[in-house]
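User: I want to check something. If I give you two sequences, will you return the structure for each one separately, not as a complex?

Assistant: Yes, each is folded on its own. Here is the first sequence with its structure:
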Amino acid sequence: MQRLVGATQRHVLNGPTMGTRYAAVFHARPGLDASAIAADLQAAVDLVDRQMSTWKPDSDLSRLNRAPIGTPVPIPAALAEVLALGLEIGRHSGGAFDIGMGAMVDAWGFGPRGGGIDAAAATARAAEAAVTATECLSLDGGVATRLRPVGIDLSGIAKGYGVDRLAAALEAHGIRDYLVSIDGELRSAGLKPGGIQWAVALEQPQRGLRAAAEVLHLVEQAIATSGDYRHFAEADGRAVSHSIDPRSRRPVANGVASVTVSARTCAAADAWATALLVLGETEGPALAQRLGLDAIFLVRSADGIRRIEVGSLGHSDAVMA
């Protein structure tokens, strides 16, 4: 879809990826070949899915997870980059973000195994001695080696990286004013015609409802939101978050409904949103403050939703209490 705005056209492109859809909104000169851009956008996210999906048995990540322990496995550059970033954020977060949670993600019914929660497997996994991905995975350039039988899962970072690849694809076509997204991961650059900032909604953290809590105005920012209100399972009559706390090996249940983070890249924002959600309403803001991260925490309380902001995540307009 395109609409003429002054000397530019507004384009809206989207397509399937990672079980959802990507979207790209951008303003560019008239006469641009949108079909070529659409093809490059799709190729960008297809690369991420092809390399990093745990749902595709033939992905590069699945191949790494199947390799015998101690066997060096050549991996493509993008996967190596994301694994390295995941390990780095794991270290800086004290293990609150851990790409080695594949078995727990499966046990709690959020992985490719399907079939709902496997209570016996979840209990058995939780009783195992906790080790982090940094202890279990060795990276040497384009070669990865699993040192222990851990399942690598990149669901907390791959969509953000996919957004970064979308941004790179647009910029390769000379496009400098855009907003790209995959679910709650977004990245903006430039402005809309007339010098207007990109506006995105921060959702109310309520299951079964899509409503804005506030509107964020972004300038050259990548943001990501992690929460417990979109992806969850039912267990014993209660909702179970899809985010796993690597320390307890159980779904996060600390009262934090969502965390939105701004970072230089969307991959980093994606991972940090998960880490800060895991850390909770006290440790999370403290670490964000210490590391200079901009974040908004929405915390459930007896009086409703409480908002905690660290830094400045862009100009915000309140929409509803």
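And separately, the second sequence with its own structure:
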Amino acid sequence: MTLNHQEQGRENNYDAVIPALASSMRARHVLVLGLVAVLLVAVFVAAICYGSTSIPLQSVLGALTGQPANGNPDFDIVLSIRLPRAITACLAGAALAVAGLQMQTLMRNPLADPFVLGITSGASLGVALVVLASGTAIGAFLSSGMGLGGGFAIVGAATLGGLLVLAPVLAISSRLQNPSTVLIFGLMTGYAVSAFVTLLVAGARPDQLERWIAWGFGSFSAVTWTELQILAPVAALGLAVACFSIKQLNALLLGENYARSMGLNTRAMRLLTMAVASMLAGVVTAFCGPIGFLGVAVPHMARAMLKTSDHRVLVPATILLGGLTALLAQLVSLLPSQFGVLPLNAVTALIGAPVVVFVILRSRSGVFTG
């Protein structure tokens, strides 16, 4: 009888401890998400205040709240340049980070991100073709942007190039059961397209090469309100689909066999996840250039902060942390230097490369569990 009483006491203790631990974990997650959200708002305002010239916080708040400009030139700078740049950084960072999280979960590979599907290489091919055609009659038509400016033509060409590369990857993925094989196929497709782009760039004129290099550096500053009318809805749609797929992503954490036993159509889920991740990465690449490392680094930063693999927490955390990281990279790129504005890709590499190295050193077993 004494043993039975002791066992019953232990069970009662477990019943009391487990809910307490779950409640403590939820409170920690809410606290971390709240802190990241506050930091995101603070850095968003700082990104508007800081630039080639500093704008007082009072002027920034006045412009954002719709106060009369009364001849204050700061209002025009805020509304026409810095606000769209900050919004673009938030959207691009969130989109790339969520796309990376989806790819890492789907491929069960800590180094997977949307660019392994060849989207960046395809977008680069589209941009290279437009730049190299700028001296022909076709190039003149494209550069006119059909009334929306030459930059919009480059955006359209980059998006089309990414989709053309994505199509065979999606076709192959529907025939293969091993996600790692799809990852390798995407890498090889990207390398093949990049080789063709290199041949095109090698024969470019100096002025064409200058435009190409400027796009390749990556930037949030070139996106206007007109282009945001495309970027924002597409990014919002992709992020919404990712949020509605949280339950399915959690099922994939334990493997496709487990997910199928739970009634999940794994093939359809793979195609949907790859399409959404590619759409998010493709639209950002088209508008902002090939921005690297955010997709692979931010999800690991979110996991480290939250100590969980639950996508119910990871997806919103990755959205917030992606926007915050992109804004910080934008601010760092504007630091005074002898080169003027630093290339955005150089800054994101400095942020993301140490995270990738840490992940490689920590993954001793070579198995990724999400």
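Because they were folded independently, the notes below concern the second chain alone. The two ends are 45 Å apart (CA to CA). Residues 300 and 355 are 8 Å apart (CA to CA).
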